[in-house]
Amino acid sequence: MTRQPLSPSTCGFAEFDDALILRQTYRMELRSYFRILKRWWWIPAALVLLTLLFSLVTLKPWQPRPSTYVMGMSFSVGVQPQQLPDEFTYDGYYTALSSEYLIDDFSEIVKGSEFAAAVSRRLADEGIQVAAGQIQGSTQTGKLHRILTVTVTDSDPERVQKIAEAVAATMVEDAHLFMPRLLEDQGAVYLVNRGGVVPIGPSLKQRLDLPLRLVLALLAGVGLAFLMEYLTPRVQTRQDLEALGLTVMAEIPRK
Q1: Please, which residues have CB within 8 angstroms of residue 224's CB and are 6 or more apart in sequence?
Q2: 217/61 Cα distance (integer angstroms)
Q3: Cα dihedral sign for 230, 232, 238, 244?
């Protein structure tokens, strides 16, 4: 009984050769990329340096940043169920459901310009001049477990407290002016939690602003380097000639 010789495909030699060729191709491509970056290194370096200088002039990170203060409050919004003697109604269920919808609607009202104008007028009556646009920009709302949260932010701790107190008074006393159909007779807004004025540090965006600029400048510089290599009509290496179908007989080394 004669044993048949194993073919290269049976032993996996062909797949092994293909893997070697593919690996060598990847190495050649990586070397080509490294040579391009080595040739045009000054483009990413110059772009990063210019970005750094521009950022230092505009951001001025060596100067102390103004402190920021925040004060948070929590409110509940609801309507009273209709009371009918000796008659069962489902108003309790619908009242709870409508209260949840009211919180969603009222959070948008607090962020609006009319509410900010009302708060500004209330502050003006107390002798404090704060523009409605500033109030609108410094007031943020949220919802947590059917509770409306309002946060006021400003660089002056005393002004933060005054604005927050005016916001709370406007919500509790004048809520029916913004939603008269639902809050005129049976609706009410209650202040359930009043936080204190707390200083906050710089935001994540402020801390990562300069590093992100430099990273983006570096990536843009690398892209420009490859673009310059593509647009430059010059032969740099023997691989460039071989890509054109020419045979290289000899090379003169630089050293």
Answers
A1: 40, 43, 44, 47
A2: 18
A3: positive
The verdict on pTM exceeding 0.85 is no
Cα separation, 230 vs 160, whole angstroms: 57
The count of residues in the chain is: 255
Identify whether residues 80 and 38 lie together within a single domain: no
User: pLDDT tens-digit profile of 22-45?
Assistant: 555 556 577 778 888 888 899 999
Angle between helices 91-110 and 157-178 (to 10 degrees): 130
Shared domain for 29 and 115, answered yes or no, is no
From the CA atom positions of the chain, what is the Rg in Å? 35
Range of the structural domain that residue 106 is part of: 68-200
Nearest to 141 by CA among 152, 131, 130, 125: 152
Q: Is residue 135 included in any domain, yes or no?
A: yes
Q: Are 163 and 119 in contact (CB under 8 A)?
A: yes
Number of domains into which the chain is organized: 2
